TrEMBL record:
Boundaries of every SAM domain copy: 341-389
Protein name per UniProt: SAM domain-containing protein
The keyword Hydrolase appears for this protein: no
Entry's Gene Ontology BP terms: chromatin organization; negative regulation of DNA-templated transcription
Pfam families reported for this sequence: SAM_1, SAMD1_WH
Annotated segments matching region Disordered: 73-155, 304-327
Main location: nucleus
Phylogenetic lineage: Eukaryota, Metazoa, Chordata, Craniata, Vertebrata
PANTHER family in the record: ATHERIN-RELATED, POLYCOMB GROUP PROTEIN
Keywords attached to this entry: Chromatin regulator, Nucleus, Phosphoprotein
GO molecular function, one term: histone binding
Gene3D superfamilies assigned to the protein according to its UniProt record, in alphabetical order: Transcription Factor, Ets-1
DNA sequence: CCATGCGCACCCG
DNA sequence: CGGGTGCGCATGG
């Protein structure tokens, strides 16, 4: 999906701006990429959106304006120097943090790393728990409240990368999304400091306007729930909020929600994925995807395979201790047929499984479902340039399982 | 005019 | 305190 070339350019640009102490905002990023590589701003913008979706880049609202972060660098906590370099390049460092704990999302850095989606989910949850919406009060101008968080996506309009990128604020010149409203679409809010555990109410639209918001919904939906929510894995409650939010934003597409099958509620919870078209594309979509929902698995389960559908559903994982309470919602998931998984699906799966860093390696190597089925132990252990520990777990607990499951169910193919 | 460099104020853990 | 962020100003081409 995202062109590696662009990924590198954009990440380098973000890093560069950061080192210069200049805010990595859309305008500067587009300008610098154009200057350095000749890429059109629109294209850069489109690629940036993709990176945001992949969580390679995090879109955050910091001090009242939008900033982009190199997810890999979000370090927050101790990072060791070691970063392993993944093939992709140096961006991996962060993940380590992720393992440790996603909870924080703090500061600018944002969210916790890249863990993808699920994590995000939980990350968000975590965050919200502490924080919640609202800080509106003061925030507005921004003080720095640091930012909120996470984000991802973006928003706006559709994104078809190529086609429309334009709509978005890409244009270098003045278009910056104003904090607030206009971009409301995109933005969603979240905030961190404010904290109010319970929640949601305030969050409504108005909240958006205030400062921090995160972009994207992916997370947002989830996030604002009060901590308590975690518990219910089913996520029952969440839906509500989420929906609320969405509606407010108008971001979502209802249809899509429906599309999803049955358990609607859940979906709603996770609306973002489901809901937004954008995301879909990249991720699940391979084809007409019917995704199954995660049936509420309990935490420990790594995969839930639904026989009916025959799908291996990647459920989240546990990364840290297995507590997934939070998440469980995982995206409902991917296409049941591994053969139809795209590179993004694979990366997303591993991120969800708790290996965000390694997921990048899969993505860098362009491993899609078909490739995954062909991978052998040695490929996983040595072909991805990932550390042995995670590689072993990935192979034994995921690759092998997925392959086995696939062949059992689709052997005829 | 534009890209950079960076002091300094803020904020968080 | 240490660390991250980014405004605002200064500098250099």
């Amino acid at each position: 999906m995202s062109e590696p070339k662009y990924r590198e350019w954009i990440l380098d640009t973000i890093d560069s701006l950061r080192s210069r102490k200049a805010r990595p905002d859309l305008e500067r990023i587009c300008r610098m990429v154009r200057r350095r590589h000749g890429s059109e701003p629109d294209r850069t913008c489109a690629e940036l959106e993709k990176l945001i979706q992949e969580q390679t880049v995090l879109k955050v609202n910091y001090k009242g304006s939008i900033s982009y972060r190199n997810a890999a660098k979000v370090q927050r906590r101790s990072r060791k120097k070691d970063d392993v370099v993944t093939t992709a390049g140096r961006r991996s460092a962060a993940e380590e943090a992720s393992h440790s704990d996603l909870s924080n999302g703090d500061s600018a850095a944002g969210p916790a790393d890249q863990d993808d989606e699920d994590l995000e989910a939980d990350a968000s949850m975590a965050m919200d728990s502490d924080s919640n919406v609202d800080e509106a009060d003061e925030s507005r101008d921004g003080q720095d409240g640091h930012f909120s968080t996470v984000a991802s996506v973006s928003s706006t309009p559709v994104h078809c990368p190529l086609e429309r990128a334009v709509s978005a604020p890409c244009s270098p010149s003045g278009s910056r999304p104003v904090p607030g409203h206009s971009s409301a679409l995109d933005a969603v809010t979240l905030q961190k400091d404010g904290v109010r555990p319970s929640s949601l109410p305030p969050s409504s639209p108005t909240a958006l306007t205030h400062n921090d918001w995160v972009y994207d919904s992916t997370v947002c939906s989830v996030e604002r729930q009060h901590p308590g929510m975690h518990k219910d894995k089913a996520g029952i409650t969440k839906p509500v909020t989420a929906s609320v939010v969405n509606s407010a934003l108008k971001v979502k597409r209802e249809e899509s929600c429906k599309a999803v099958e049955g358990p609607v509620t859940l979906d709603q919870c996770v609306p973002d994925y489901a809901a937004r078209p954008h995301q879909e594309e990249p991720r699940n979509v391979s084809n007409g995807r019917p995704m199954t929902l995660p049936l509420l698995t309990e935490n420990g389960t790594q995969f839930a395979k639904k026989k009916d559908t025959g799908t291996p559903v990647p459920v989240e994982s546990h990364v840290n201790g297995g507590s997934n309470d939070d998440i469980s919602v995982k995206k409902e998931t991917m296409n049941p047929n591994l053969l139809q998984w795209t590179v993004a699906d694979v990366a997303s799966y591993f991120s969800d499984a708790g290996f965000p860093e390694q997921a990048m390696a899969f993505r860098s190597q362009e491993i899609d479902g078909k490739s995954l089925l062909l991978m052998q132990r040695s490929d996983v252990l040595t072909g991805l340039s990932i550390r042995l520990g995670p590689a072993l777990k990935i192979y034994e607990r995921h690759v092998k399982v997925l392959q086995r499951t696939h062949f059992l169910e689709f052997d005829d193919l």
